[in-house]
Specification:
The complex is a heterodimer of chains A (388) and B (446). Chain A is mainly α and 388 residues long. Chain A contains 15 helices and one strand; from the N terminus they run H-H-E-H-H-H-H-H-H-H-H-H-H-H-H-H. The chains are: A mainly alpha (388), B alpha/beta (446).
Chain lengths: 388, 446
């Protein structure tokens, strides 16, 4: 490590202002601080600082997503060979999954981090770690057959318009990963809906066996084929077609446990989201105007990307409500609207993406009223004093 | 009947190097008063180098409030008056005489004195500087009538002094000081004590509230907020227990005797214990032969709110402990990625949370670099006030005075934000931001 440190120290001056590579200052800094926690010490205020930093925080979120990613890789292969009707061994399944998923992950990271590094340099700032999480979220919410160039464009759009235009990490209004998905959804609707894109190779129509439709549980539900919804067992473990990371509820719950135990993901949002979803379903159950409305809360919650959205997307600390009370309201409405949009929207089977993006837009308003209540309480206290 | 208030949100930082409860006496020899300790004071010097002073002899006054006098904590000779950038008066250093010599302010019974006499005596002796006001934490204005005078009888900061032990050492003087403050405030002094078992001596003329819970339960600002929060236009006064004793002595003995008991603590002090010395003592001779090897950080005060001083520096006027911890000027290979079994963190992302009672040797490493505010909802966990900390910090950054007022700036002091600064994932200068906000309002209001 000493040698590496010495090497970094040696080349460091070239990246400083006036150096040969000053245009790569932010890039060098990002790599250096990635390898070594800097030797910077406190100079005013508190003399000690917690060991946590944004790198640690973000890496915890990534660790929480790893179960979903690994299952997604397996399921990609599993669904593919299922569609072909072939019996293959575990390694072949994983091999196919890796081949399909890793390029999407790579493209997302390269495109997104590229933009981040450029903007950090323009702003003379250090590279923020925020994209480390977005870069992993984007592949997990993509259908496996999405063209790679589309992932690249969507990512670049999401980072520039969704984040950098607002001032970078911490300032954005909308969740960048969801924005990337929304971009594809609105720009190339055919590529992110229908029955064929969820299974690797199905789009090209490689010798699919009879009886394999590739439809997700949600599209079955939307088309009224309620009886074809897979068993709760399959929904929970995730042996179903869907976006790469959303299918296994078990993997998502594992992630949720990691996020809650480390205190990095807001349990308030997750719980409130779940409550919101269940509440909406129960309301639908009460009316039961069509077959979709009669689905039990458990089935609704386990279908589609509801859990994935509530655990990984709605909890983004920047785009969610920032006050704890606000987080309850925000989460509840996000869950409620997700189920509502899902059941009512005829054009697209899933409502989670639109619901969370909508709540992202309302989060500042929720916070405004929560903080306003605090201010009113304070003013009232002062007014009471004047009277007495 | 005294009531108990339970404080849930906060954090105790367990450090190695707690002072053992034995008190040693040492002659420090060198002392200094640092005008920079007094917020908003513009000093006008009254002495020059070589002058002989007694304990209680005026050294300088505040240019804008010339009734506020700052006096020498010990008797001796003015050795040096040092100035810093822009000729800011930094330190007035005094070489003490072996035999203490005191200005005589006359013994008196606070119960029999009236408020005016008490104020005059406190001002003349220099003890007035020990009474500070909230908001702003500046020296109190003698013409104000505070809505209450608050003393926190315990400190929950890392390695903080045990005030029960210190007060026990001078109960009569403490009682006299409380009597003085009761006269000043026109009501019993609001005394905050630790909940549960405590051995704080019983004193009269106090209105006691017990506070249970982690740091910052001992912060006087938190105690005020929980019992009677400050509204716009209101003023409360606060005094440290050790200063209450000094004020008491001024009446029982008639002298300005700044004798204090200070813990010398921190992981880098070989034999951490309490020392009896005077305000403004030099730490050089005190810490001699008692330090570990390595580059060290010397702190007048505690690790969260104290001031960095040199190895031959002096204790601050309002500081009641001296802490030495290691500097953290090293690179750590993949430090952010390691499991962190022996790294203390408020977050549960390091495995050290499995051993909650462990004590740590923490250094001054920044553990990262400044970032945008990302982790919302984090600050509230260590901030036991009905105030939205991040929103208030942002209002201070934006210099939006109306918003600061609305969000409760008058109820806070920078020390109340020290824990937020400690746990902050974004590594921002929270205390500095709050101080700047307070200063801005103070200037706008005056």
């Amino acid at each position: 490590m000493k040698a590496l440190r010495n090497y970094l120290d040696k080349i460091k001056p070239q990246f400083k202002e006036g150096g040969k590579f000053e245009k790569l200052h932010s890039t060098f800094d990002a790599i250096e601080t990635f390898l070594f926690v800097p030797d910077k010490t406190t100079f005013k205020g508190s003399h000690i600082r917690d060991v946590i930093d944004l790198k640690r925080t973000m890496s915890m979120v990534i660790i929480a997503m790893i179960p979903a990613l690994l299952f997604g890789i397996w399921n990609t292969g599993y669904q593919h060979f299922l569609s072909l009707g072939q019996e293959v061994d575990f390694m072949q399944i994983i091999g196919y999954g890796l081949l399909k998923v890793i390029p999407i992950v790579a493209v997302s990271y390269i495109a997104g981090l590229g933009v981040e590094f450029i903007f950090a340099q323009i702003r003379h700032e250090e590279v923020n770690e925020g994209f480390l999480v977005s870069g992993m979220l984007i592949p997990l919410v993509m259908p496996v057959d999405v063209p790679l160039w589309m992932v690249a464009i969507a990512t670049i759009f999401a980072v520039i318009i969704g984040k950098e235009a607002f001032g970078g990490t911490g300032m954005n209004v909308f969740n960048p990963a969801l924005l990337a998905r929304a971009f594809i959804f609105f720009a190339y609707p055919a590529k992110i809906s229908g029955d064929t894109i969820w299974t690797g190779g199905l789009t090209k129509g490689e010798g699919v066996i009879d009886g394999f439709s590739g439809a997700t549980p949600l599209s079955k539900a939307a088309s009224g084929a309620i009886d074809q919804i897979p068993s709760l067992h399959d929904l929970f473990f995730g042996f179903i077609p869907g976006s790469i990371g959303e299918t296994s509820k078990l993997a998502i719950l594992l992630g949720a446990v990691i996020l809650i135990v480390t205190g990095i993901g807001s349990w308030r949002i997750m719980l409130a989201g779940l409550l919101g979803g269940v509440t909406m379903t129960l309301i639908f159950n009460a009316f039961a105007a069509n077959a979709y409305m009669t689905l039990s809360p458990l089935t609704q919650v386990m279908m589609g990307s509801f859990l994935f959205g509530m655990v990984f997307m709605a909890t983004d600390p920047v785009t969610a409500s920032q006050t704890n009370r606000g987080k309850w309201i925000y989460g509840f409405l996000a869950g409620l609207l997700a189920i509502m949009i899902r059941v009512f929207n005829p054009a697209y089977p899933e409502g989670v993406m639109l619901s969370i993006l909508l709540m992202n837009a309302f989060a500042p308003l929720i916070d405004y009223y929560v903080v306003e209540a605090n201010i009113k309480r304070r003013l009232k206290r002062a007014a009471k004093l004047v009277k007495s | 009947m005294a009531n108990t208030i339970r404080i849930k949100r906060g954090l105790n930082i367990n450090l190695i190097g707690e002072a053992t409860k034995e008190i040693s006496s040492i002659e420090a020899g060198n002392f200094a008063i640092k005008p920079t300790d007094f917020l908003g004071v513009f000093p006008r010097l009254l002495v020059k180098e070589g002058d002989t002073v007694k304990a209680g002899t005026p050294l300088f006054i505040d240019k804008y409030r010339d009734n506020i006098v700052f006096t020498s904590p010990v008797s001796g000779v003015i050795e040096e008056i040092s100035r810093g950038d822009k000729r800011v008066l930094e330190e007035i250093r005094i070489k003490s005489t072996d035999k203490p010599d005191y200005e005589d302010f006359g013994k008196s019974d606070p119960a029999k004195s009236n408020r005016e006499e008490i104020i005059v005596k406190l001002l003349k002796s220099g003890a007035w500087a020990m009474i500070r006001q909230r908001p702003y934490t500046t020296i109190a204005n003698p013409s104000d009538t505070p809505k209450g005078i608050y003393v926190s009888g315990f400190d929950t900061a890392p390695l903080a002094p045990d005030y029960s032990m210190i007060v026990k050492d001078s109960v009569t003087d403490f009682q006299a000081g409380i009597d003085v403050l009761t006269k000043l405030g026109g009501a019993p002094v609001k005394l905050g004590l630790p909940g549960g078992k405590n051995d704080f001596p019983s004193v009269s003329n106090t209105d006691i509230t017990y506070f249970e819970g982690p740091h910052p339960a001992g912060n006087v600002g938190i105690q005020i907020h929980k019992t009677n929060p400050i509204n716009k236009g209101e003023i409360v006064w606060v005094v440290n227990p050790q200063d209450v004793i000094i004020i008491g002595r001024l009446f029982t003995k008639g002298i300005y005797d700044t004798s204090i008991i200070i813990p010398f603590c921190g992981s880098e002090i070989k034999n951490p214990k309490y020392y009896r010395t005077f305000k403004g003592a030099s730490v050089r001779s005190l810490a001699k032969n008692n330090l570990a090897e390595g580059t060290l950080r010397f702190i007048s005060g505690n690790v969260l709110t104290g001031t960095r001083i040199k190895s031959d520096g002096y204790l601050g006027f309002y500081h009641n402990q001296f802490t030495v911890i290691p500097e953290g000027n090293y690179f750590e290979f993949f430090g952010w990625a390691l499991p962190g079994l022996n790294k203390f963190s408020f977050s549960k992302s390091f495995f050290s949370y499995l051993t909650p009672n462990r004590k740590y040797r923490l250094d001054t490493n920044f553990h990262g670099a400044e970032r945008a505010y990302v982790m919302t909802g984090q600050y509230e966990q260590v901030f036991p006030m009905d105030i939205y900390p991040m929103q208030l910090i942002k209002a201070c950054l934006a210099e939006n005075i109306e918003m600061m007022e609305n969000l409760g700036i008058y109820e806070v002091d920078e020390e109340d934000f020290a824990l937020i600064e400690y746990i902050d994932t974004s590594k921002t200068e929270v205390q500095h931001i709050i101080r700047k906000g307070l200063d801005l309002i103070r200037k706008e209001m005056s």
